[in-house]
UniProtKB/TrEMBL annotation:
It comes from Candidozyma auris. This is Tubulin gamma chain. The keyword Cytoplasm applies. Keywords: Cytoplasm, Cytoskeleton, GTP-binding, Microtubule, Nucleotide-binding. GO terms for cellular component: gamma-tubulin complex; microtubule. It comes from the Eukaryota. It is found in: Cytoplasm, Cytoskeleton, Microtubule organizing center. SMART domains: Tubulin.
Length: 480
């Protein structure tokens, strides 16, 4: 069995994304909201007869693997290996009411019930003051694992709780488990277009980014502007409306969750390749400095809630692989030309046509502009469709994760927004206790260190497009 994966969902965004993610997982595994498994539908039976009957296979003979993501209780209910953290109760309370499969003992809320007020510093300080409780929660979940391989943090980088407590958790995980377990993050970047978003978000983002750089192993980057645009582009008059969404962000979160669940497809429906979290991450992250990842989905027809008649186009394996190259499908879109360090495509469906996959890959490899030193190849995961969600007719879906230079632009934009505030030391008092001159300077210095770290990452992504990226180091060693 692949190692277990523990999810940490933190703050409003983290918990709302987390709720959609576990909804998607429950659909894939045929679990009722309280974690009760539906009778397992055998893959062969479903495919050969296309019948709605369920085979009576006992759970031990299931072809999918739930155990990496769920624990099984004595009452035969599956519980997500997930920890829900927020400083105010409303979002977590809603999540646990909608999906009672969450373990109520894995919930951490602040005693006062007030949030971190869009302030990274508040979130981080809260986390420091509650370090013991938070590590106890994680340790308790770890005790239920045979061989935990990864933690995945879901959060927004720009608020107070997901960013500040999230940063602290990454630091704790790094201190305690270092390189022994992967720490990946699903990190949501704020919208630049929506003016309602809070003015100090560039500060919070900068502070969080530094921790992602220092303590994370891989970050899947999503930005709210791209998510909104994608929703409108695909579905016409607004993602939320067409996905039957009841709250803002629900549509955006479905897209994030589809990727977050999709990337572990080969762990959940075991296959001979990419069968561990480590192998997936190491395919797309070549060095610890280059670990910010993009993702795309094409087409959208298999996302729960999307009405196939509206946007369903019949695509075969070849089409899907080429379709995934289109930058407009990226969940962190960037209009500049990109250089790729790595690309991993998931083609998900049954009875995949390997000839069409090979044809697609050859064509795609010619189209992608890779950095000179990277292997000019595209990995493919032959993903399996859950027997619970499999459409009657053959319908494929595709996900792409990639490492590319779009980060230069996204981080560059964040640095610019940060500079606008920092050069006037605007709102620095939000981050100080006494607000005297020396404390203000201390805070500004700490912010500048974070910016420096972000700048270095931008420079690394720029440098990696050069032929000499590895060459210079080899030269230096030769000269020693
Ligand atoms: N995609 C997406 N973005 C969200 C969601 N909720 C909030 N955001 C964005 O996240 C940022 C604010 O972060 P929140 O997650 O609300 O903040 P928090 O972590 O709860 O922290 P505090 O409320 O400040 O304690 C803003 O940029 C929002 O636009 C969500 O469910 N999905
Ligand atoms: Mg909040």
């Amino acid at each position: 069995m692949p190692g277990e994966v523990i999810t940490l969902q933190v703050g409003q965004c983290g918990n709302q994304v987390g709720l959609e993610y576990w909804n998607q997982m429950a659909l894939d595994f045929g679990l009722a909201p309280d974690g009760t498994p539906q009778p397992y539908k055998s893959d062969e039976l479903a495919f050969e007869t296309d019948s709605q009957e369920f085979s009576q296979k006992p759970p031990s003979q299931r072809e999918d693997v739930l155990e990496s993501f769920f624990t099984l209780s004595e009452q035969n209910k599956y519980t997500p290996r997930s920890i829900l953290i927020d400083l105010e109760p409303s979002v977590v309370t809603k999540a646990t009411a909608k999906l009672p499969m969450f373990n109520p003992r894995n919930v951490h809320l602040s005693e006062t019930g007030s949030g971190a007020a869009n302030n990274w510093q508040h979130g981080y300080a809260y986390g420091r003051n509650h370090e013991e409780e938070l590590t106890n929660l994680i340790d308790r979940e770890l005790d239920k694992c045979d061989n935990c391989s990864a933690f995945q943090l879901m959060h927004s980088v720009a608020g107070g709780t997901g960013s500040g407590v999230g940063s602290l958790l990454l630091e704790l995980l790094n201190d305690r488990y270092g390189s022994k377990k992967i720490a990946s993050t699903f990190s949501v970047f704020p919208s630049n277009e929506k003016t309602s978003d809070v003015v100090v978000q560039p500060y919070n983002t900068m502070l969080t980014l530094r921790r992602l750089i220092d303590f994370g192993d891989a970050t899947f980057v999503f930005d709210n502007d791209s998510l909104n645009t994608l929703g409108n582009m695909f579905i016409g008059s607004g993602l939320e409306k067409n996905l039957n969404c009841s709250t803002a962000f629900e549509g955006a979160n479905k897209l994030i969750s589809y990727v977050a669940a999709g990337i572990t497809n080969p762990l959940r429906f075991p296959s001979y390749m990419y069968s561990s979290y480590e192998s997936i991450i190491s395919t797309v992250v070549p060095t610890p400095e280059l670990k910010f990842l993009s993702s795309s989905i094409a087409p959208y027809s298999n996302i729960p809630g999307v009405v196939p008649a509206q946007n369903y186009v019949s695509l075969n394996e070849y089409d899907i692989i080429l379709e995934l190259l289109n930058d407009k499908y990226k969940l962190n879109s960037c209009k500049e030309p990109l250089k790729y360090i790595s690309v991993l495509d998931y083609v998900i469906g049954s009875n995949l046509d390997q000839k069409e996959i090979r044809r697609g890959i050859i064509k795609a490899q010619q189209r992608v502009s890779f950095v000179p030193w990277a292997p000019h190849s595209i990995g493919v995961v032959n993903g399996k469709q859950s027997t619970f969600t499999k459409p009657k007719s053959k319908r494929l879906s595709g996900i792409q994760i990639s490492n590319n230079t779009s980060i230069v632009h996204l981080f560059g934009k964040t640095v610019k927004q940060y500079d606008l505030l920092a050069k006037r030391a605007a709102y620095i008092n939000f981050y100080t206790a006494s607000n005297d001159a020396s404390e203000r300077q201390e805070v500004l210095d700490a912010f500048e260190e974070c910016k420096e770290s972000v700048r270095q990452t931008i420079d690394e992504y720029k440098a990696c497009t050069k032929e000499s990226y590895f060459g210079d180091d080899i030269m230096d060693e030769d000269m020693l």
